[in-house]
Amino acid sequence: MRCSMDCFPCLLQQGIRTARQHLENEEEQRKLVKRIIAEMAAADDDASAPYIAHKIQRALIEVLGVTDPFAKEKHYYNREMLKLEDDFVRMVESADNPLKAALKLASAGNIIDFGPGHDLSSEKVLETISITMKRELPEDVFNKLNAALREADKLLYLGDNAGEIVFDKVFIRTIKAVYPHLQVYFATRGKPIVNDVTEDDAYAVKMENYAAIINNGSDIPGTILKLCPDSFVKIFNEADVIISKGQGNFESLSGTTNHKNLFYLFLCKCSHFMETFGAAQNEMVLIQNKT
Protein backbone atom coordinates (compact mmCIF):
# COMPACT_ATOMS: atom_id res chain seq x y z
CA MET A 1 0.00 0.00 0.00
CA ARG A 2 1.52 3.27 -1.13
CA CYS A 3 2.35 5.74 1.63
CA SER A 4 -0.43 8.31 1.88
CA MET A 5 0.30 12.02 1.84
CA ASP A 6 -1.23 12.10 5.32
CA CYS A 7 1.48 9.72 6.56
CA PHE A 8 4.46 11.98 5.86
CA PRO A 9 3.86 14.59 8.58
CA CYS A 10 3.06 11.76 11.01
CA LEU A 11 6.31 9.96 10.17
CA LEU A 12 8.29 13.17 10.56
CA GLN A 13 6.64 13.91 13.90
CA GLN A 14 7.51 10.39 15.08
CA GLY A 15 11.10 11.06 14.09
CA ILE A 16 11.23 14.38 15.97
CA ARG A 17 9.66 12.78 19.04
CA THR A 18 12.14 9.89 18.91
CA ALA A 19 15.11 12.26 18.53
CA ARG A 20 14.05 14.26 21.57
CA GLN A 21 13.43 11.12 23.58
CA HIS A 22 16.81 9.51 22.93
CA LEU A 23 19.21 12.41 22.31
CA GLU A 24 19.92 15.12 24.90
CA ASN A 25 21.91 17.49 22.68
CA GLU A 26 19.76 19.66 20.40
CA GLU A 27 22.38 19.72 17.65
CA GLU A 28 22.38 15.92 17.58
CA GLN A 29 18.60 15.98 17.49
CA ARG A 30 18.68 18.33 14.50
CA LYS A 31 21.19 16.14 12.66
CA LEU A 32 19.00 13.09 13.16
CA VAL A 33 15.84 14.90 12.04
CA LYS A 34 17.60 16.18 8.91
CA ARG A 35 18.69 12.64 8.12
CA ILE A 36 15.13 11.46 8.63
CA ILE A 37 13.87 14.10 6.19
CA ALA A 38 16.50 12.95 3.68
CA GLU A 39 15.42 9.30 4.07
CA MET A 40 11.80 10.28 3.46
CA ALA A 41 12.74 12.32 0.39
CA ALA A 42 14.79 9.46 -1.04
CA ALA A 43 12.05 6.85 -0.65
CA ASP A 44 10.52 5.38 -3.78
CA ASP A 45 7.13 6.86 -4.70
CA ASP A 46 5.48 3.47 -4.23
CA ALA A 47 7.06 2.80 -0.82
CA SER A 48 4.72 1.97 2.04
CA ALA A 49 4.68 3.85 5.33
CA PRO A 50 6.19 0.86 7.23
CA TYR A 51 9.10 0.75 4.79
CA ILE A 52 9.83 4.47 5.30
CA ALA A 53 9.40 4.04 9.05
CA HIS A 54 12.05 1.34 9.13
CA LYS A 55 14.52 3.63 7.33
CA ILE A 56 13.86 6.25 10.02
CA GLN A 57 14.38 3.75 12.82
CA ARG A 58 17.57 2.41 11.22
CA ALA A 59 18.95 5.95 11.27
CA LEU A 60 18.13 6.20 14.98
CA ILE A 61 19.79 2.86 15.74
CA GLU A 62 22.94 3.89 13.89
CA VAL A 63 23.11 7.24 15.70
CA LEU A 64 22.57 5.72 19.15
CA GLY A 65 24.72 2.65 18.54
CA VAL A 66 22.14 0.32 20.14
CA THR A 67 20.17 -2.45 18.49
CA ASP A 68 16.92 -2.03 20.43
CA PRO A 69 16.24 1.55 21.61
CA PHE A 70 12.76 0.63 22.86
CA ALA A 71 13.71 -2.52 24.80
CA LYS A 72 12.83 -1.02 28.18
CA GLU A 73 9.37 0.06 27.05
CA LYS A 74 8.67 -3.31 25.41
CA HIS A 75 9.64 -5.21 28.54
CA TYR A 76 7.41 -2.93 30.60
CA TYR A 77 4.27 -3.52 28.53
CA ASN A 78 4.90 -7.27 28.22
CA ARG A 79 5.24 -7.46 32.00
CA GLU A 80 2.22 -5.26 32.76
CA MET A 81 -0.10 -7.06 30.34
CA LEU A 82 1.00 -10.47 31.61
CA LYS A 83 -0.26 -9.38 35.04
CA LEU A 84 -3.71 -9.05 33.45
CA GLU A 85 -3.62 -12.26 31.41
CA ASP A 86 -5.71 -14.33 33.85
CA ASP A 87 -8.33 -11.57 33.91
CA PHE A 88 -8.38 -11.55 30.11
CA VAL A 89 -8.86 -15.32 29.99
CA ARG A 90 -11.74 -15.19 32.48
CA MET A 91 -13.35 -12.37 30.51
CA VAL A 92 -13.21 -14.40 27.31
CA GLU A 93 -14.26 -17.73 28.80
CA SER A 94 -17.31 -16.19 30.49
CA ALA A 95 -18.54 -14.62 27.24
CA ASP A 96 -21.49 -16.02 25.26
CA ASN A 97 -19.16 -16.39 22.27
CA PRO A 98 -15.57 -16.79 23.52
CA LEU A 99 -14.05 -16.65 20.02
CA LYS A 100 -15.78 -13.35 19.26
CA ALA A 101 -14.81 -11.94 22.65
CA ALA A 102 -11.17 -13.00 22.18
CA LEU A 103 -11.06 -11.32 18.77
CA LYS A 104 -12.40 -8.07 20.25
CA LEU A 105 -9.87 -8.29 23.06
CA ALA A 106 -7.03 -8.87 20.60
CA SER A 107 -8.07 -5.83 18.59
CA ALA A 108 -8.11 -3.70 21.76
CA GLY A 109 -4.50 -4.70 22.43
CA ASN A 110 -3.52 -2.91 19.22
CA ILE A 111 -3.68 0.35 21.18
CA ILE A 112 -0.17 -0.46 22.48
CA ASP A 113 1.71 1.26 19.68
CA PHE A 114 4.64 3.67 19.89
CA GLY A 115 3.84 5.05 16.44
CA PRO A 116 0.82 7.34 16.08
CA GLY A 117 0.53 9.73 19.00
CA HIS A 118 2.36 7.58 21.53
CA ASP A 119 0.12 9.03 24.25
CA LEU A 120 -0.16 5.76 26.12
CA SER A 121 -0.71 4.66 29.70
CA SER A 122 -2.01 1.55 31.43
CA GLU A 123 -5.24 3.44 32.08
CA LYS A 124 -5.59 4.16 28.36
CA VAL A 125 -5.14 0.47 27.57
CA LEU A 126 -7.81 -0.57 30.08
CA GLU A 127 -10.19 2.11 28.81
CA THR A 128 -9.73 0.88 25.23
CA ILE A 129 -10.46 -2.70 26.31
CA SER A 130 -13.68 -1.62 28.03
CA ILE A 131 -14.89 0.35 25.02
CA THR A 132 -13.91 -2.24 22.42
CA MET A 133 -15.58 -5.16 24.22
CA LYS A 134 -18.91 -3.28 24.06
CA ARG A 135 -18.68 -2.55 20.34
CA GLU A 136 -20.21 -4.67 17.61
CA LEU A 137 -17.95 -6.28 15.03
CA PRO A 138 -18.72 -6.93 11.35
CA GLU A 139 -20.62 -10.22 11.66
CA ASP A 140 -20.21 -11.15 7.99
CA VAL A 141 -16.42 -10.95 8.14
CA PHE A 142 -16.28 -12.69 11.53
CA ASN A 143 -18.42 -15.53 10.18
CA LYS A 144 -16.12 -15.90 7.16
CA LEU A 145 -13.07 -16.01 9.45
CA ASN A 146 -14.74 -18.55 11.70
CA ALA A 147 -15.70 -20.73 8.74
CA ALA A 148 -12.18 -20.52 7.32
CA LEU A 149 -10.68 -21.54 10.67
CA ARG A 150 -13.08 -24.49 10.88
CA GLU A 151 -11.86 -25.83 7.54
CA ALA A 152 -8.18 -24.95 8.00
CA ASP A 153 -5.19 -27.05 8.97
CA LYS A 154 -2.62 -24.24 9.26
CA LEU A 155 -3.06 -20.76 10.73
CA LEU A 156 -0.43 -18.04 10.44
CA TYR A 157 -0.84 -15.19 12.92
CA LEU A 158 1.20 -12.07 12.11
CA GLY A 159 2.11 -10.32 15.36
CA ASP A 160 2.46 -6.59 15.79
CA ASN A 161 3.52 -4.96 19.07
CA ALA A 162 4.99 -5.90 22.43
CA GLY A 163 2.40 -5.88 25.21
CA GLU A 164 -0.25 -6.41 22.55
CA ILE A 165 1.20 -9.89 22.13
CA VAL A 166 -0.43 -10.96 25.42
CA PHE A 167 -3.84 -10.16 23.89
CA ASP A 168 -2.84 -12.15 20.80
CA LYS A 169 -1.87 -15.07 23.03
CA VAL A 170 -5.34 -15.14 24.62
CA PHE A 171 -6.94 -15.00 21.16
CA ILE A 172 -4.77 -17.83 19.85
CA ARG A 173 -5.42 -19.85 23.02
CA THR A 174 -9.15 -19.43 22.36
CA ILE A 175 -8.82 -20.39 18.70
CA LYS A 176 -6.96 -23.55 19.74
CA ALA A 177 -9.66 -24.37 22.29
CA VAL A 178 -12.36 -24.13 19.61
CA TYR A 179 -10.29 -25.73 16.84
CA PRO A 180 -7.67 -27.97 18.51
CA HIS A 181 -6.71 -29.54 15.18
CA LEU A 182 -5.12 -26.30 13.95
CA GLN A 183 -1.37 -25.97 13.55
CA VAL A 184 -0.62 -22.36 14.49
CA TYR A 185 2.42 -20.23 13.64
CA PHE A 186 3.02 -16.89 15.35
CA ALA A 187 5.26 -14.57 13.30
CA THR A 188 7.41 -11.81 14.79
CA ARG A 189 9.78 -9.30 13.20
CA GLY A 190 13.24 -10.54 12.36
CA LYS A 191 15.02 -7.75 14.26
CA PRO A 192 14.03 -5.07 16.79
CA ILE A 193 12.12 -2.16 15.29
CA VAL A 194 10.21 0.39 17.41
CA ASN A 195 8.03 -1.65 19.85
CA ASP A 196 7.21 -4.41 17.37
CA VAL A 197 7.41 -7.98 18.61
CA THR A 198 10.53 -10.08 18.22
CA GLU A 199 11.05 -13.74 19.03
CA ASP A 200 12.37 -12.66 22.44
CA ASP A 201 9.04 -10.99 23.19
CA ALA A 202 7.11 -14.07 22.05
CA TYR A 203 9.11 -16.37 24.31
CA ALA A 204 8.89 -13.86 27.17
CA VAL A 205 5.08 -14.20 27.21
CA LYS A 206 5.25 -17.98 26.56
CA MET A 207 3.55 -17.83 23.18
CA GLU A 208 5.16 -21.22 22.44
CA ASN A 209 2.48 -22.85 24.61
CA TYR A 210 -0.05 -22.23 21.83
CA ALA A 211 1.88 -21.56 18.61
CA ALA A 212 5.15 -22.27 16.85
CA ILE A 213 7.18 -19.04 16.96
CA ILE A 214 8.81 -17.89 13.72
CA ASN A 215 10.13 -14.55 12.45
CA ASN A 216 9.76 -12.79 9.11
CA GLY A 217 13.49 -12.07 8.77
CA SER A 218 12.92 -8.32 8.47
CA ASP A 219 13.29 -5.16 10.57
CA ILE A 220 10.33 -3.46 8.90
CA PRO A 221 7.30 -2.66 11.11
CA GLY A 222 5.12 -4.66 8.76
CA THR A 223 5.34 -7.60 6.37
CA ILE A 224 6.83 -6.94 2.94
CA LEU A 225 6.95 -10.39 1.38
CA LYS A 226 9.61 -9.58 -1.21
CA LEU A 227 11.98 -8.67 1.64
CA CYS A 228 11.21 -11.80 3.69
CA PRO A 229 13.22 -15.04 3.40
CA ASP A 230 11.88 -17.92 1.33
CA SER A 231 11.28 -19.98 4.48
CA PHE A 232 8.80 -17.42 5.80
CA VAL A 233 7.13 -16.86 2.41
CA LYS A 234 6.63 -20.63 2.13
CA ILE A 235 4.73 -20.73 5.44
CA PHE A 236 2.76 -17.63 4.39
CA ASN A 237 1.71 -19.20 1.09
CA GLU A 238 0.90 -22.59 2.64
CA ALA A 239 -1.21 -21.19 5.48
CA ASP A 240 -4.92 -21.89 5.06
CA VAL A 241 -5.78 -18.81 7.12
CA ILE A 242 -3.75 -15.71 7.99
CA ILE A 243 -4.67 -13.25 10.73
CA SER A 244 -2.72 -10.02 10.28
CA LYS A 245 -2.56 -7.71 13.29
CA GLY A 246 -1.94 -3.98 13.16
CA GLN A 247 -1.96 -1.14 10.64
CA GLY A 248 1.68 -1.79 9.69
CA ASN A 249 0.94 -5.31 8.49
CA PHE A 250 -2.13 -4.03 6.61
CA GLU A 251 -0.23 -1.18 4.95
CA SER A 252 2.61 -3.44 3.83
CA LEU A 253 0.49 -6.42 2.69
CA SER A 254 -2.63 -4.83 1.20
CA GLY A 255 -2.55 -5.02 -2.57
CA THR A 256 0.51 -7.31 -2.65
CA THR A 257 -1.05 -10.76 -2.16
CA ASN A 258 -4.09 -12.65 -3.42
CA HIS A 259 -4.41 -14.86 -0.34
CA LYS A 260 -8.19 -15.22 -0.03
CA ASN A 261 -8.25 -16.17 3.65
CA LEU A 262 -6.12 -13.28 4.88
CA PHE A 263 -7.93 -11.25 7.53
CA TYR A 264 -6.72 -7.87 8.82
CA LEU A 265 -7.42 -6.85 12.42
CA PHE A 266 -6.41 -3.50 13.90
CA LEU A 267 -7.59 -0.32 15.57
CA CYS A 268 -8.16 2.69 13.34
CA LYS A 269 -5.67 5.15 14.84
CA CYS A 270 -5.14 7.98 12.39
CA SER A 271 -7.22 10.38 10.29
CA HIS A 272 -6.27 8.70 7.01
CA PHE A 273 -7.62 5.33 8.10
CA MET A 274 -10.61 6.90 9.84
CA GLU A 275 -11.55 8.42 6.48
CA THR A 276 -10.72 5.27 4.51
CA PHE A 277 -12.84 2.95 6.64
CA GLY A 278 -15.43 5.44 7.88
CA ALA A 279 -14.47 4.58 11.43
CA ALA A 280 -13.97 6.53 14.63
CA GLN A 281 -10.54 6.85 16.21
CA ASN A 282 -9.48 3.59 17.88
CA GLU A 283 -12.48 1.75 16.45
CA MET A 284 -11.86 -1.89 15.49
CA VAL A 285 -11.34 -2.78 11.83
CA LEU A 286 -11.81 -6.39 10.70
CA ILE A 287 -11.64 -6.90 6.94
CA GLN A 288 -10.87 -9.71 4.53
CA ASN A 289 -8.13 -9.35 1.94
CA LYS A 290 -9.25 -8.28 -1.53
CA THR A 291 -8.16 -10.78 -4.17
Keywords:
291 residues, alpha/beta, Rossmann fold, 2 domains, 13 helices, 52% helix, globular
Topology of this protein?
Blueprint lengths: L6 H16 L3 H17 L6 H16 L6 H12 L2 H9 L4 H11 L13 H13 L4 H13 L2 E5 L5 H15 L4 E6 L10 H6 L7 E4 L14 H9 L2 E5 L1 H7 L8 E7 L2 H7 L5 E6 L3
Parallel strand pairs: 1-2, 1-4, 2-3, 4-5
Antiparallel strand pairs: 5-6
Helix pairs in contact: 1-2, 1-3, 2-3, 4-9, 5-6, 5-9, 6-7, 6-9
- Kindly report the average pLDDT value: 92
Q: What proportion of the residues is helical, as a percent range?
A: 40-55%
What is the tally of helical segments? Answer: 13
- Unreliable spans are none
In CATH terms, what is the fold-level topology of the largest domain? Rossmann fold
- Looking at CATH, the homologous superfamily of the largest domain is Uncharacterised protein PF01937, DUF89, domain 3
DSSP strand content: 5-15%
Total strands = 6
Strand order of the largest sheet: 3-2-1-4-5-6
Shape: globular
CATH architecture descriptor text of the largest domain = 3-Layer(aba) Sandwich
Summed up, the domain count is: 2
| Radius of gyration over C-alpha positions, nearest whole angstrom | 18 Å
Main sheet: strands, sense, barrel: 6 strands, mixed
SSE-based structural type? alpha/beta
CATH class category name of the largest domain: Alpha Beta
Cα separation of the termini: 14 Å
Q: Which sequence of SSEs, written as H and E, runs from N to C?
A: HHHHHHHHEHEHEHEHEHE
